[in-house]
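Entry type: protein chain
Record version: 2
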Amino acid sequence: MLKKEQFYRIMELLNKQSFVSVSELTQQLGISRSSVMRDLDELESQGLIKRERGGAASLQMPELALSGYSESPVASRRQTQSAQKDAIARMAAKKIRSGSCIFLDGGTTPAYLLPYLQTKKVQIVTPSTYLLSKVPNGFAGEIYLLGGSYLAEYETVDGPISLDIIRRFNFDCAFLGTNGIDAKSGACSIFSVSIGAMKAEVLKHARRSCLLADSSKFHVQAVSNWASLNAFDEVYTDAFPAGIRKPGNVTICAEAHKEKKNR
C-alpha cells in the first residue's frame, strides 16, 4: 500500500470515529505496528491528528482543506458517484466533434467520456495514465500522454515538463475536473498547487472549456484555487446547491435511469 493511501485510510477511519487504536490500524491497513506508529507521528506533525495512548484521535476543529495528505487515491474513487459521472460525461460528449483536439484531465470523471468517443476521430491530450487503462477496444482516435513527474497514487503526471508540453497545443475543447467548488464565490480548488497550475495553463490554450464535476464537489474545499466557475464555457454537474443562484453556464445532467422514468 502506498504511503499516501495509508494516510488517507487513517484519516478516513478518524472521520468515522473519534479514536482509532494502533492495533485496529495494523489490522485495517495490513502493516506492522512500527509502520503505523511512524504514520501517526507524521500525521501529528502535519497537525492532522492528535496522538493519544494506544492510538490517535481526530482533532476537534473545522474540517481541514483537502490536501495531498487527505485526497484519496484514484483507485479508491473509481466507483464513487459512477451514475452521476456517466450522466455528466454523456451530456458533455455531445459537444465533441470528429476532427477535434481535446484535453481530458486526470481523475476519474473525464475517463467516463471515453465510451462516448469510441467512434469519433479525435486527438486526446491527457496527463492521466488512469484514462489510458479505460480506452475501449476499437477506439478510432489518437491519444497523446503528457510527460512529467509521475504521481502513482493519482495515476497522473504534472510538473514543469507537463506545462511545457501543454503550451505546444491548441485545444478545441478542454474537459477538466476539480476537487472542490465554492458555489457562492465560484472558486474551484484542487489538492495540489502544481496540478492546479497545469489546469490553469490548459485553460489558456483551449478555445472552449468544460468543467465536469459531480455535486459532491460542492461540499469540498481544497488547498489551492485554480479557476472560477465563470471561467468555463460550460459546467456539467448532476445537481447545484439549493438556495444559491445557478450560473447560466451550468448544465444539470440527469442520470440515465431518471431520464427513462420520465419518458
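Comment: The first helix runs from residue 3 to 16.
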